[in-house]
Amino acid sequence: MTDIVQPNHDRRPLKIAHFGDIHLTSQRGDIAEIRRFLGKRFLGTVNFRYLGRGHIFSQARERFQTLLRDIRQQSVSFMFSSGDFSSMSFPDEFRSARTLIEQELHPSASDLAVIPGNHDRYTLGEAWSRSFDTIFREWLHSDLPLTSRNRPYPFVRFIGHDLSFIFIDVVRFHPLLSTGTVTRRCLREVERLLSSAELETKMKLAVMHYPPFRADGSLLKYEHRCRHITRLLDLLQRYSVSAIFNGHVHENYFFRLPGRPMYLFNAGSGTHSRHSTYNIYTIEGNELTVDRREYNPDTGLFVSFDQQQVRLSASE
H or E stretch including 193? Predict the structure, then answer.
């Protein structure tokens, strides 16, 4: 057990941190190794160096460290990332994220869960090698038996007596776009977990990188959306999942999904130069209070900019 996680032996409120879209950049000067920047990384490098992305995330390391220190002050019971620790899926970027997390929070295997984002599967080589899975291995473990294939996703974490989080990987490498895909195998494996007796009496919450909608309720642009995500939402609704937690879109927002008894919470980017945000959720029974926190450049700290409470329910 770490110095920040408080055990929940009784049914006191649970505090949970949600962050993502950190986008650390390799610090090794890999730009000199041309072979490492062929393919999609060439496009990413042009975007980073000449089209403004480098400026947007120029302080990513420092912001992430500040964010982690803010989490440490919140006495959370659990924390999770909704993806995109890296910019171009260099192993150095994953290791930098891991080092900062360990230095600031010292999380045990049960304190933290992570899933990849599209930038964590940026190249075909990473899609095959899965260095993300290797470097973050202990934070991918499941509290239920894994599926038969030798991959960690989807997996389940039980938090306290009453909560279950299902972590779902819908990221698929694409040579040009930032899209994801909900495959038939993904649906089968998620249903296998959701239908287990261990989840029957627990509140069920799901985490995946891609949100189905933007802050204004519109669909994501074609090159950024997750294909077949409606099929996954239908499955989650059928098994009474109360909320989904996402990243990918660098805006902090939440709302009840249209026509569904399910909330969407998007934490935004924890390191974006204009608006660095993350969320703290306090859950007691069916009541969830979201504390939306953002970086204040005047103080150099993360502070609360909005707190609201919703009632989570899987039935109309």
Answer: helix 184-194
Q: Are 303 and 294 in contact (CB under 8 A)?
A: yes
Q: Does pLDDT of 5 surpass 80?
A: no
pLDDT tens sequence across 118-153: 999 988 878 888 999 999 999 999 999 865 556 799
CA pair distance 208, 171, nearest whole angstrom = 9
- What element of type H or E holds 125? helix 124-129
Find tokens 């999770």 and name the residue. Answer: 80
| 14 sits in which H/E element | strand 14-19
What is the set of domains in the chain, with CATH numbers?
14-311 (3.60.21.10)
Query: How far is CA 243 from its chain centroid?
Result: 14
Tokens coding 189: 């494996």
Cα–Cα distance, 216 to 251 (Å, whole number): 11
How far is 25 from 182, CA to CA, in rounded Å?
A: 28
Question: Is the pTM above the cut of 0.85?
Answer: yes
- Amino acid code (one letter) for 258: P
Q: Does 298 have pLDDT greater than 80? A: yes
